[in-house]
Amino acid sequence: MAYKPSPAQPPSALLRQVRPLRLLLNQAERLEHLQRLLESQLQPAAREHCHVASWRDGTLLLVVTDGHWATRLRYQQKRLLAALQAMEAFGNLRRILFKVQPPLVPTKRGLNTTELSANAAQSIRGSAEGITDEKLRAALERLANNASRKKSLQNKTS
């Protein structure tokens, strides 16, 4: 007798039928609803830095991206607590805890696009000639050569 797999089902159907997945989906939807309610009470600049982590036993745990925003939100804690308690979903809210947790994906920082002019590269080369420390002289020469190389590459592509 051959094994006959069950017909494929859309993921949304699986999430609603399998009990552990259904419970997980319900919890995620609940947290998303609480997040929207929280964001309605936060200043627009703070919304991207503050997320609901859990809501249990009258305690709301908020994850904040850095200490700066955690401090700002702690100053507003009494106002935020009163505003959230007025909502039905947060009826038994007694306290708000803040936990600082940097984002999992580091923010992309701008690349250093500062380029040395040919004049600056020549000046660095001249300075390197008068330096007795071999490591420093080699570093300055590499810096000057790197600037020259970038300029020649730009000229070739132009």
UniProtKB/TrEMBL annotation:
Pfam family, one: DciA
Entries under InterPro entries matching the protein: DciA-like (IPR007922)
Name the UniProt record assigns to this protein: DUF721 domain-containing protein
Organism: Pseudomonas putida (Arthrobacter siderocapsulatus)
